[in-house]
Specification:
heterodimer; A: two-stranded antiparallel ribbon; 3 helices; B: alpha+beta; 3 domains; 16 strands; 41% helix
């Protein structure tokens, strides 16, 4: 199950990455190497071993109580916004 | 595309719609699902945000226990099976309303599965399957200024807890879809899981719909409809799509598998562009949250503290108050209205009379005012007092209605309004007889008609007495006195 150039281009599009032809060649090879390593791990017999969903899967149910607390001051929020107008973040138009 | 109005009976008989609904419901917690920011609706934009819900680097989510309990409540009320353990996943896509580049959701291990709810349409009860109920986080609110060059974002909504409720494709008509949404809304309100206000976006509905030749089991090509922002839009959007797909199939043309947007202004659905095209979310387990164990003891505790379900309350209203099933259904749709009914009956134990008042007057006035019951000054004491004033003969029903409108508007005591405006019924015989004599003398044609056997003329004459007394005459007494006046007149001739 080799990764094709077309798949690399598709994933790059989903991740909003603009890749050069050389990079596509390079990442196609690297991704295939990684998948080969994973395939080799897949040869280990894991019958009866439950999948590990989390590195800390012995720890469960970490909660906080439903108590509201004030968040950031609005001027601090405005300070990290690339663009800001009347209390709102301004971003490029996204609707057709 | 030309606007399509309706299908002829032949096409309706030949094709069957298959509908599944995906409903998002905001949970009414005080704080967000993965951070402590408040969830107050309508706050100034970007005043309820923090590093977690803004997706700042290094910020880590911590799960709100109350959100899990409300989600469990919803799943249990929908008769879902609760697995012993579930987990959270990342749903990856790029959109400005999602600052992390992913939404924390649940993919292959939802919190509840295989549930159902029952709907009743035209007296027929049908069970609609619930495929799954899962938890996720709300996105930011985008504001698109018409003709503007930018999109504006308010992150107050980002991170508000949501559940998504996915039905099985068991729904067959737009009416059933509406009944399903009504029942779902009722259940969520009863469970105090959500206020389910479609106009505030705390309940949103997308639909999956296909059409197939009737009598087959194969599913047709699925189309997803989004952007239906009201109950009416859901009904209209589905009606439109059924007609569109049925026409395509009967003309032998293919239905394209796609997402379409309901265009309220034009009354049509049209193909969506943008993010809905890329259904490639690359889900993977959320490493920032540990698994969620749903210990049976905890689930049992949540179940034990659950309020009564709407179906249970409807059954109780029929059983304990002797109400018709129709009354029970209308009264129980909104738990606040059902509670108002019970509180009024506790003060004035005539259930059917109270039910009539609520169904005819209270719900009409609420609807006209566009208000929830709690936002009006109306209290059970008012309605109970008004019913008693009618029973005691102090006012008649027509006047009671006028008084009620005023109580509804300003919350004053009915007896006070009656006294102040002099609305008490005239039961004084001598005063009413005088009016009756004047009416008989002043309407010779009606009197002639009555004497020639036209019973209807009596209604007219009594009506004139009511008119002369501004509706305050005791109707039975007025009838008796008109007859008396007629007899006197005949005696003089």
């Amino acid at each position: 199950m080799a990764v094709t150039r077309a798949e690399v281009e598709h994933v790059a599009m989903l991740a909003r990455l603009s890749l050069t032809e050389e990079e596509i060649t390079q990442f196609t090879k690297q991704l295939n190497d990684i998948l080969e390593a994973v395939r080799r791990m897949g040869e280990v017999d894991t019958t009866g071993v439950p999948p590990t969903m989390h590195a800390l899967d012995q720890i469960k149910n970490v909660f906080r109580p439903d108590l509201p607390r004030p968040g950031l001051a609005r001027e601090d929020v405005a300070g990290i916004a690339p663009a800001w107008a009347e209390g709102l973040f301004v971003v490029p138009k996204v609707v057709e | 595309m030309a606007h399509v109005e309706s299908l002829d009976a032949e096409l309706q008989a030949a094709y069957e719609p298959v509908i599944g609904l995906e409903v998002h419901v905001e949970l009414q917690t005080d704080s967000k699902v993965f951070c402590s920011c408040p969830t107050t609706f309508g706050a100034e934009p970007n005043t309820q945000v923090c590093p977690v819900c803004l997706g700042l680097p290094g910020a880590l989510p911590v799960l709100n226990r109350r959100a899990v309990e409300l989600a469990l409540r919803a799943a249990l009320a929908l008769h879902c099976t609760i697995p012993p353990e579930c987990k959270f996943d990342r749903k990856n896509y790029f959109y400005p309303d999602l600052p992390k580049g992913y939404q924390i959701s649940q993919y292959d291990q939802p919190l509840g599965v295989n549930g159902w709810l029952e709907i009743s349409v035209n007296g027929e009860v049908r069970r609609i399957g619930i495929r799954r109920v899962h938890m996720e986080e709300e996105t930011a609110k985008s504001v698109h200024v018409a003709g503007g060059t930018h999109t504006l974002l308010d992150f107050n909504r980002a991170g508000v807890p949501l559940i998504e409720i996915v039905s099985e494709p068991d729904i067959r008509t737009p009416e059933e879809a509406r009944a399903y949404l009504n029942e779902l809304q009722s259940i969520m309100r009863y469970m105090e899981v959500s206020d389910c206000k479609m106009e505030e976006g705390s309940l949103r509905c997308d639909a999956n719909i296909s059409v197939r030749p009737r009598g087959t089991d194969v599913l047709g090509t699925l189309v997803e409809i989004k952007n239906m922002n009201s109950w009416r839009a859901v009904q209209k959007g589905l009606e439109y799509e059924i007609i569109r797909q049925t026409r395509l199939l009967s003309d032998g043309e293919p239905v394209v598998r796609e997402t379409r947007h309901w265009d309220e202004g034009r009354g049509i659905t049209r193909p969506a562009r943008g993010k809905e095209e890329a259904h490639d979310y690359r889900y993977f387990p959320e490493p920032d949250l540990v698994p969620l164990a749903l210990d049976p003891a905890w689930v049992a505790e949540v179940k034990a503290t659950m309020p009564e379900l709407p179906a249970e309350r409807r059954a109780r209203f029929v059983r304990d108050f002797g109400l018709p099933a129709y009354d029970a259904e209308v009264l129980c749709a909104d738990p606040a209205v059902a509670g108002f009914f019970e509180a009024t009956v506790a003060l004035y134990p005539q259930p059917k009379q109270v039910s009539n008042w609520i169904m005819k007057d209270v719900l009409r006035l609420l609807n006209d005012a566009g208000l929830p019951l709690a936002a009006t000054p109306l209290r059970p004491e008012h309605l109970a007092e008004l019913c008693r004033l009618v029973d005691q003969g102090t006012i008649n029903l027509t006047v009671a209605r006028q008084v009620f409108e005023e109580v509804f508007a300003n919350g004053r005591a009915p007896a006070e309004i009656v006294a102040e405006k002099g609305l008490a019924q005239i039961s004084d015989e001598s005063a009413l007889l005088k009016v009756a004599r004047e009416v008989v003398a002043g309407n010779p044609d009606a009197v002639k008609n009555y004497r020639s056997g036209k019973e209807k003329a009596m209604g007219f004459l009594v009506g004139q007495v009511m008119r002369a007394t501004k509706g305050r005459a005791n109707p039975e007494l007025a009838t008796a006195l008109v007859k008396k006046a007629l007899a006197e007149q005949q005696g003089q001739e």
